[in-house]
């Protein structure tokens, strides 16, 4: 096992932007007065000529990104997920997705783990919003190494991509020596046939800890990491449904419109099985320290383990 | 360079194209298409460096129709310029047509940005102007927006951005026909003083008659000479200009002619075209 790195994925994102910018001179980064928080400041400090702070004006920032892309640049537009995907949703739909322009949209401070800022800033709908746009790729990497590779892959892909970034520093679990990122391909982190746990983002490591702990109780759960929510890996999910018979989804997002729905869209047509949805149960969040909130909302190892145990018992 | 007589003739043909297109579509926006027809004509025939043989030339000047619903006369100008066949206008808005209800950069040669949702085109135009600066290219970006459109907050976000980044390679052209769907712009949104608004946002401003080619020419020349600041041309126009029964009528914002109206409009414009052809 490689060294564990404790880093927020927003920081990994900023680092990857810098790395790519060395060879790709067309990368231009835009932010909306949150560069220090989204970590596009890492890029801005290194490449000030290719960094533009658009001020607190997200709608215009997305439009500017569309224009840059129409003129051959590879723009990255970042803000908090609430604002980059929520405030500027229609600009993304009509000026980016409809013409299929090569714009990368980053949403940091996504999910309940945004913490103390509370409900107005804890975006639980970004994946749902971005997933419904034709041609939009949706990425939700789970740790430092995955975010680095996902960001690089997104920049190499010609077309609109949404990348979800977290605020909270989290432990890595992937091994950079063996880790391989492929757009649209899920990763099986643990084999098992009692139930398939399909997780995405920050909660993957929590699910991983739960699955590993349950081994000693004789529960053999399969764990699948879905870093690309759209296009989703239909094959890995269908196979899991067939071989495990039941699925548990885990996401730091409303259970409506996100990973759970994306998984059910596959199973309902390919192999209908019962799907238990762990996530934010169609409600808003509230202020509090990130880990306390994750615990309260049932997104940590303890609750995920309890749900797996329950589902397997009732199988 | 086209002289004024030629420009007037081309503009009359563009107006005819807008009437033909919306008639065959049984829908669309003739009013604003007619008010902006003269500036489209001047831009494409005397101002912009564009080549129908190579519509994607990376050094070309760019045009963004931020008030995308006024595309019928823009399409007519693009057809007259040679980007596609005039007969495409007869299937405007039809299933499978190259000419969509609002401009589509992926379907229509000569269209530089997909637009239609008001306020968004100006931001994209700023992005193109910024790309020009970054790439050290000397192309210019022109964007036409409606006066009603200036009620959108994004227009002012874009205006701030253009001035802050010293985009002197962009020209905002506001088609002040004074009418929007729910009434006059002053009744509905209350835009004036628009010149002072743009000036205070850091623009150099010219106020002109949008149907006078000499004034359009001198404003665009002044824009080219202006350094370190974006330029706004506020042009007073007549909505429905060129078709007598459409002029200054808010009802012609978004509906097409019926058979009888179509005959009347075509007769007026064809008579005008014949008169202008004799002059040229």
Could you describe the 3D structure shown?
The complex is a heterodimer of chains A (about 325) and B (about 280). Chain A has 13 helices and 14 strands. Chain A has about 325 residues and is of the alpha/beta class. Chain A folds into two domains: about 5-170, Thiamin diphosphate (ThDP)-binding fold, Pyr/PP domains (Rossmann fold, 3-Layer(aba) Sandwich), CATH 3.40.50.970; about 185-315, Rossmann fold. In chain A, helix 1 packs across helix 8, helix 4 (about 60-70) runs parallel beside helix 6 (about 90-95) and helix 10 (about 235-245) crosses helix 11 (about 260-270). The radius of gyration of chain A is 19 Å and the shape is globular. Chain B has helices at about 5-25, 30-35, 35-45, 70-80, 120-135, 155-165, 185-190, 195-200, 215-225, 260-280, and strands at about 60-65, 140-145, 170-175, 180, 185, 205-210, 230-235. Chain B is globular and about 50 Å long. Chain B starts with a helix and ends with a helix. The model of chain B has no long low-confidence stretch (mean pLDDT about 95). In chain B, strand 4 and strand 5 form a beta hairpin. With about 280 residues, chain B is an alpha/beta fold. The relative contact order of chain B is 0.17. Chain B has a single domain, classed as Thiamin diphosphate (ThDP)-binding fold, Pyr/PP domains (Rossmann fold, 3-Layer(aba) Sandwich).
Spell out the blueprint of helices and strands:
The complex is a heterodimer of chains A (315) and B (280).
Chain A: E1 6-7, H1 9-21, E2 27-31, H2 35-38, H3 40-46, E3 51-53, H4 58-70, E4 74-80, H5 81-87, H6 89-97, E5 104-108, H7 126-131, E6 137-139, H8 144-156, E7 161-164, E8 170-171, E9 187-190, E10 195-199, H9 203-214, E11 221-225, E12 228-230, H10 234-244, E13 246-254, H11 259-270, E14 274-280, H12 290-296, H13 301-313
Parallel strand pairs in A: 2-3, 2-4, 4-5, 5-7, 6-7, 10-11, 10-13, 13-14
Antiparallel strand pairs in A: 1-8, 6-12, 9-11
Helix pairs in contact in A: 1-3, 1-8, 4-6, 9-13, 10-11
Chain B: H1 4-25, H2 30-35, H3 37-47, E1 62-65, H4 71-81, H5 120-134, E2 141-146, H6 153-164, E3 170-176, E4 179-180, E5 183-184, H7 185-188, H8 194-200, E6 204-209, H9 213-225, E7 231-236, H10 259-279
Parallel strand pairs in B: 1-2, 2-3, 3-7, 6-7
Antiparallel strand pairs in B: 4-5
Helix pairs in contact in B: 1-3, 1-4, 1-10, 3-4, 3-9, 5-6
């Amino acid at each position: 096992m490689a060294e564990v790195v404790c880093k927020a994925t927003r920081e990994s994102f900023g680092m990857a932007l810098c790395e790519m910018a060395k060879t790709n001179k067309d990368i231009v980064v835009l932010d909306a007065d949150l560069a220090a928080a989204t970590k596009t400041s890492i890029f801005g400090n290194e490449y000030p000529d290719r960094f533009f702070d658009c001020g607190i004006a997200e709608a215009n920032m997305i439009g500017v990104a569309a224009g840059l892309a129409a003129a051959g640049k590879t723009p990255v537009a970042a803000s908090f997920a609430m604002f980059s995907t929520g405030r500027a949703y229609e600009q993304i739909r009509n000026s980016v997705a409809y013409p299929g322009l090569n714009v990368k949209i980053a949403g940091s401070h996504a999910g309940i783990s945004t913490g103390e800022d509370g409900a107005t800033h804890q975006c639980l709908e970004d994946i749902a919003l971005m997933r419904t746009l034709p041609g939009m790729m949706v990425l939700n990497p789970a740790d430092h190494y995955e975010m680095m590779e996902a960001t690089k892959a997104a920049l190499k892909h010609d077309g609109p991509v949404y990348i979800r970034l977290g605020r909270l520093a989290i432990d890595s679990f992937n091994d950079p020596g063996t880790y391989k990122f492929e757009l649209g391909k899920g990763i099986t982190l643990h084999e098992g046939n009692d139930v398939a746990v399909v997780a995405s983002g920050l909660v993957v490591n929590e699910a991983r800890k739960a699955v590993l702990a349950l081994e000693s109780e004789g529960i053999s759960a399969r764990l699948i990491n879905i870093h690309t929510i759209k296009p989703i890996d239909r094959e890995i999910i269908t196979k899991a449904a067939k071989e495990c018979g039941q699925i548990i989804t885990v996401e730091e997002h409303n259970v409506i419109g996100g990973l759970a729905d994306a998984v059910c869209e596959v199973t309902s047509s390919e192999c209908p099985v019962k799907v238990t949805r762990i996530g934010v149960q169609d409600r808003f969040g509230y202020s509090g320290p990130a880990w306390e909130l994750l615990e309260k909302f049932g997104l940590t190892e303890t609750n995920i383990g309890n749900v797996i145990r329950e589902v397997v018992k009732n199988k | 360079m086209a002289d004024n007589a030629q420009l007037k003739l081309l503009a009359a043909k563009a107006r005819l194209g807008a009437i033909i297109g919306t008639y065959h579509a049984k829908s669309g926006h003739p009013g604003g298409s007619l008010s902006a027809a003269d500036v489209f004509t001047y831009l494409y025939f005397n101002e912009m460096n564009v080549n129908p043989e190579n519509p994607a030339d990376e050094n070309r000047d760019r045009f963004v129709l931020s008030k995308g619903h006024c595309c019928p006369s823009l399409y007519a100008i693009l057809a007259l310029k040679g980007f596609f066949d005039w007969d495409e206008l007869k299937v405007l808005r039809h299933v499978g047509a190259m000419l969509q209800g609002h401009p589509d950069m992926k379907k229509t040669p000569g269209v530089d940005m997909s637009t239609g949702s008001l306020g968004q085109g100006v931001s994209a135009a700023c992005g193109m102007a910024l790309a020009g600066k970054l790439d050290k290219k000397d192309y210019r970006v022109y964007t036409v927006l409606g006066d009603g459109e200036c009620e959108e907050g994004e227009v002012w976000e874009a205006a701030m951005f253009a001035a802050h980044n010293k985009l002197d390679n962009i020209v905002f052209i506001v088609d002040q026909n004074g009418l929007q769907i729910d009434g006059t712009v002053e009744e509905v949104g209350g835009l004036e003083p628009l010149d002072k608004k743009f000036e205070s946002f850091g623009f150099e401003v010219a106020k002109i008659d949008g149907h006078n080619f000499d004034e359009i020419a001198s404003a665009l020349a002044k824009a080219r000479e202006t350094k370190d600041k974006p330029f706004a041309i506020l042009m007073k126009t007549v909505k429905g200009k060129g078709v007598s029964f459409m002029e200054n009528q808010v009802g012609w914002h978004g509906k097409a002619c019926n058979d009888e109206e179509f005959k009347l409009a075509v007769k007026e414009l064809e008579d005008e075209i014949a008169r202008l052809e004799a002059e040229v």
